[in-house]
């Protein structure tokens, strides 16, 4: 039986850029299993899906659009970091 390989996040992806220097406010933590990280990304994207649907049904609801934007940015950072972890595990570096 082949043991399963645990692939973790590398902690390189950032999100929520701010200030004049466009510095990231948040970073994905290194060492989280990619399976758990992708589960969180899926949950975030489910929220984005629901918010964009609701905002499309209502007129002039900018708060739902901005919430969707920030949640999707978080999900993208998770997926980008998982991708880096997979590349590192395959010997391709980050």
TrEMBL record:
A Pfam family the protein falls into: DUF3077
InterPro entries membership: DUF3077 (IPR021427)
Protein name per its UniProtKB record: DUF3077 domain-containing protein
Native organism: Pseudomonas migulae
